[in-house]
User: Fold these one by one.
Assistant:
Number 1:
Amino acid sequence: MPISSHRFVSLAALGAACLTSCAMPTSDGASVGAVASDLTGEQRFAACANDPRVKYGLVSQDICAGADIFFRETFNGNGRTCGSCHPVAHNFTLDGNFVTALHTSKPQDPLFVFEDSRFNLANLEIKDDLLGHGAILENVDDPNFLDPVNRFVERAVNHLFSLSLTITADTGDGVTTNPPVERTGWSGDGAPGDGSLRQFLNGAIKQHYPKSLARVAGTSPGADFRFATDFELDKTLKFQRSLGRLNEVDFNQVNVFDSGAQEGRRAFIDPMRARCNVCHFNGGANFIDTGKNRNFDTRNRLFTGLHFGKQPNGLPILDGGFGGGELATPNIDVGNFGFLSGFGNGTFNTQPLIEAVDTEPFFHGNVEPNIEGATNFYATQDFLGSPAAAALDARFGAPVVITQSDVFNIGRFLRTLNAAFNLDLAKQRLEAAQTLANKTQNTEPGRTIQIGLMQLADTELNDVLNVVLNATGFTLDPPLYPVPQNRVGLARTEIAAGVASSDWSSRQSHISVALSRINDARNQLGANFNFQMGQGNLMF
């Protein structure tokens, strides 16, 4: 989802503020700018005082520093940052098309460090899975990395939107304990230690950042990486919890103006039609009874050619979901093949749906290409024969099979909500760019940040047009919101003109018109679903 050509910024010319603000999002979704592990978190925090977004009240100094750590700190490792797998211009996630394009345009990107002859990291990733599916290698069942080359699973990369709403652990699911205190990663146990999002960073550093598979931690010359300091953990946590939306909406009050989407809303919340609302309450990731995130065994064990780990006896290791890292041998028959093939209890946690439509493909193996395919999984025998389905049947007194009509209408409903989410992201970024145009005009680094925010806003509008309202892989019939699509196209034209303008007042004028077009498009989608957006959306 391209947003600009590569743009390099002279850090020396722009001064200390560029430690946090002068990296520009690029056409491959990476950031070009300062990547400096010799900076402490405290130094990054101090530099953020000069970031125009902080100076003019758009972003807190804590969130600014956390973002700088997230996008530019390598922790003395192999060159990767959090943004390597969670690029801001690609919804903080990866897919096969994106990774393949990045590999073509920028093969030296640290995401592909396993190909770098300076390191002995050939087994850090499986190239075919990364480029073909956007899947990364995870040693979730080998927490001490005793056999990282064989004891692994391949998983999709979670997007990071709306984490503050979606990760509080619901221990009422009967299959997990405390820790983990929060549901991180696809199986809900992705973080070391107490299992919190705060500690997830150190788990990611050890998994993805090492200079060798020996994974020696420390600050000595021979170390493979260093762990984050408490200061860095705290600031990065604040940034991550400020991404996406900060509020839930009430699906009983939502009114969408496409008739099929409105019917999809009814099906979503009706337990005798689709039952989506039980596990994805109000389109989020929480269980309806508790408002917290649960693990479920949905028998979602679909395979699309991803590589498997290997047991000492030569049999494959498949993804067994939550737990199992303490076990010496597999304990679960993941694929019903007649032999024990995975570690864990077969459960995975839920993901938020409002943000999901433009982060395809879906599920922990990146197996379904669009939201309709993901919804249709719950009409298959794999799900209908699962423990999760049995619990729903017992709760409501009868089984339910989602009709194909409801599948497509639920898709229209979720596409509407995701379009609104993208429009609100774009609006937030453009309003911030407008504020900076007023305050900083053409002075740096304000001008550079203005342009970056405008380009990121355009990525969201691109998603609305090319992913959300025009489905991947099939045609939406009837078309979904053709008039708002026209307004979004006009807004993109204004953004392009503003980015190209050398005059700040002209840029501001184009932003104003683009905002008017976006508001017009947003108002035609529906009513009673307003999103409160976090400050982290303004960082890159």
Number 2:
Amino acid sequence: MKSFFVILVLLFVSSVLAKETQRDLLNEADKLKTAKPEQSRSLLDKVDRKLLLADEEDKYNYLVAYNFYINGKNTAALDILESIVSKDQASLVKYQAQGTLLSIYATLKNWSKALKLASTLQINLTDKPILDAKISERIMLSLLNFYNNIGDYELAKNLAMELLNTAKSPRVRCMTSNELMKSFVETTPQKIQPNDLVKAKKECEQLNDPIIENILNAYIAEYFLVSENPKEAIELLEANITDVKSTGYQALIVGYYELMARSYLQLSNYVEAERLAKYIIDTREQHQYEQTITTAYQVLAEVAEYSESFEQAFHYYKQYSEAKQLNLDQDNAKLLAIQKAKFDAAEKNVQIALLDKENALLKTQARLDSKSAQNRLLALALLTLVLVVFILWTYKNRKTYIKMRYFAQTDELTGIANRHHFAQLALSAIELCQKTNQPVSFVIFDLDYFKKINDGYGHLVGDEALKMAVNAAKSACRKNDIIGRLGGEEFGVLLAGCGNHLAAHIADKCRKAIQQIDTSTTGHQFTLTASFGVSDSSMCGYEFTTLFAGADRALYQSKDLGRNQVFNYQTNAFAFDI
């Protein structure tokens, strides 16, 4: 009996020690997540997840997602972070996940989700007195980074100053100094003094974290470049490039190469500038950072022009122009999303104000009713009964109306807007774009040889093919794009705040998504493709019928020239080759 008791005690002690070991592994992986990402990932691989508590499981998942983010795998990190954020309980890990998620939304240009999350964090910040200090600092730091990402540098400066006055954590102070340096470099670099650089570097030196330190070095190098001191910039970048490459952080690595290419170009070292710019272009599939790709084409064009290789210079300038236009289209889409979010917030505030006034009137009425004579109570009760009956009748009628409106506006098979409702939505979006001076594009696509599918496999299979094609197109479109069924196998997409370059790019994503559909779920294996026509407001103006006609004409040119491709009405040339 005694030996049995000893065995139980030993098992209990070993279980406690095992759990402590898992906690220690998580804490060490957390400390190294930016300093040594590969080592952090190695520690996570050693964790026995079966021994983790619920909060430790969240921390483990966050560190895995953060490692994906560091290595440029934003999509892989997205689902994990959204799962953590969706939980009800407030914790430091949840706010860390929200901050990382905010950065990923900005990177992926999902401005509607980014602005919604930023608004949520801002509301949470108003409860600062009841928040843990670490959580409060994490929220402020996430918002500071987001304001810099959307170009609201003055708001970022104010928040950074406030955070530096209160934050005690060396990591938070260092990262805040980084963001403050970025704000000044982007707006008023002439106000930066040498002592400011020394103070910022001092905040980060004690962390011994190569990613955070070298992000600051990148901002300082940018400051040297805009101050026309490329020699100092290249000395700083060359001294740290080995450490940067060892982190594996793709955004930082390609950012350093971009800064070095620009520095060498200013120093007239065209060989090095060309080598670095070509590296950025050659590895674009690995990092996909569009701004650095745009800069790389500009550097290559200027190098070719200096070398009097004018044909090559023209080629690179053309690539630079197209990349720049794509950046501008995306910036316009961002601005439109921000304007819409501000408009929605203002409208919500007006509604709240109206509800407050209505509540005040109801309270006044209640006080008056309470002072009414006793002989009026019966009449009041009768009136209340009539009101309840009226409300129930109104509620029932409204439900019926909503149901009828849904059937009147929705295509029964695919679940998207029918032709009439699509036209109404498109007209409203076009009118808003015209008022805000934003571009707008129209895409029409038609499934190729669809009659053969109906004839060969039956109409039920054809219906399934239509639904799969719509779902594939929706997954390739942006959140705010409007898609509708025009009739049969023909569909339309209205892209607000989108110029012809970006519209053609999105159309080609839809084309590829449809081509990659696996039709085996229908019980038959066949290839599904579609032809696309694109028009935009720069060519057709802000008239729905003109945009429709331009896209329709481009669609028939796409079909005439072989199908399964995108044809741009504006350029009268193929936007993409397959």
Number 3:
Amino acid sequence: MNAAPATPTSTTVGAPNLLAAVLGDLFNPFAGNSPNTPTPDSPLSWMLLGVSRRQLGVDSISSQSLLAPADSITYDPQITLLLPEDNGVITGRNTAPTTVNGNPLTYTVVSDPSGGGKVMLNPANGSFTFLPDFSSVQNPTSEETFNVLVAETTPFDAALMGLPLVGSFVPRILVVIHQVPVANVLLAPIIGQSTVAPVVVEVGDLVYDGTTRHPVAFTVKIPSPVDGALISTNYFPATSVVDGADSAPTILNGPGLATAANTDPNSTAIIPNPPPGIVPGLQPLRDAGYNVVTWDPRGEFASGGLLNIDSPAFEGQDVKGIIDWISDPDHVAYTFPAFDNDVTGDPNDASQQYGDADPAIGMVGGSYGGGIQLVTAGIDPRVDVIVPGIAWNNLVDSLYPNQTFKTSYASLLLLGLVSTGARINPALYPAFLLGAFVGILTPSQQALLASSGPDFLTANIDVPTLFIQGIDDGLFPLQQSLNNASSIATPDELIKMIWHCGGHGACFTMTPTQIAEQDQMLNTTTIKELNSVLQNPNNAPNTIPKFQYVDQNGQWYTAVLIPTDNGFYTGSTPVVTDNGAGGRLGIVPLLGGSGPSPLVPLPNSIVFGSEAKRAIDIPLDDGAVGTTVVGAPQLTFDYTGIGTSRSVYAQIVDRNTGLVVGNIVTPIPVTLDGRTHTVDINMEDIVYTYDDIPDDADLELQIVGSATQFLNLTQFGFINVSNVAVSLPTPGSGAGVAEETLDPVMV
């Protein structure tokens, strides 16, 4: 039996953070969130018309509402601790009515739990899950209290909430008003009645039953070994333990940037949001026999310290501190199931060979939660297996490719952090601001970004690793996964890779059903990878294909090599276009360039490439029907020009759909000094299969003067391009490529 779904909320709501309310759901690129369709505009005209007709306001409220007693709103959560095989989480189910006067009630936590616990409250029905603080779990007589504001949502409130842009912060303002004495009474006929209900959680009585201590999920603040910053950490016990043992391996799951730790015991998948997502949620991991530990990274939400973008000197040390904590026998004694201090007991298993198995630890997570896996595995040998999703190898290569700053991604990233109240290393602000305004980073700023790694740590990683990267990821493109895979010390047979449709972007080429099946495959494959290391007493071979990737049609392929392996391209026949084409192009910011995408609402649309109206267009030769391009197109051309621009941009457009392949734009560094120069550069990796539609060309190269991904208002000029040649890589026979029928039920 599972607890009612709980929507995480901030523990307390005080004065509204207007910037957070407006921007919070929009700017979160490091979380891996795909852009969402905007909420339809609220009928503002309807609301104003209603006011003019006195249908809203005091005169329109029914006598029942005006005369209703203050105690007509009740809140009655029945608090229980479900057994671990059901949930192992303290749960409150609201049994009181969720409407009053025909209007729905909303529920908001307005005071922190007295003992340091965390509340995940469903604002629509008042049910919640509760993580007591570790100190409360240790005390048989402990209790924690917090307050919940229960407020009526009137038609007036609903109309305000539906207003474009400003409606997103109306609920926070209403929460504040409902807590102001006198004002809440005077305005009740308009904004609705409210009451603040205290909730008492008898932690000791729930956890302790006579001499028996039941398994329970809890939260704890763990001091960082680097500076003592308190890292808010959460523990969830496995709901099933393999072979009835009293211990289980532990999975560490770090969140995306500007995203709090996952504390929803019913979550099935995360990143992107809304589901489906590419990372297993708490429920499937726990049901597979794993304790799960999540945390708020330093500088964010309930954790202390300053954010340093997964730096091994800071965030990496924080995770080492978490591993130290769960390795401490005193703490193991209070966990159910206990943290497994031996993966299998078999000295020949993979985890014993390629990592210290005390305790047995795997890691999952995407984006920021993917980067921390590589950093942690590079500095702590106690990690046994990792599954980094949409992670990076080097932040300079990712944010400043070819000395061209990704202004749009960086701006959204920074706004996302500001909107969630993150506490950031002050040295990061100048880097983002300079890059955003003039498109450059100083050497010291590049060094600061580079210090986050993990490129200089990957040679220390020697554990089984499954890389998951997105073919539509403009922030951390496919090459980042290849750079990581080619540099880790893990034996080749223990490295796996999946390229899926998505990433820090949107998958425009697959149906919702195909995306759901894909994400289910990614989740089940992740758990299968964890099982092969952490729950494999017989050391059975890992049957996950070496390389899996999907094309623009949703067709999946497997291969026995990855593109960085010797032999992947041996004997291949690249698709080559060398027709001496070219043209002249004026360089003007924004006008006629690539992006924003018309398929995605602002502001997220600015990070996507789109077919340009002003471009040098080069039709590319077709490959044979069924031929799949996998990897980085090689582009060469001669040019001359004058101007201030330091870059032009190249993209490949699918003429069948009008979409930029992978939504990816590659910056091409140029020197516009009037002299003749030659460019020879690898574009960003793509995946594309040629079809049998009769037309002039499936693909077309576009060279453009501006791209919103790299928006720079200081760049002007013109360029004359000639002798363009493009080579599109295709796998060789040694790669062992075969079409795959996706089976989403793999575990």
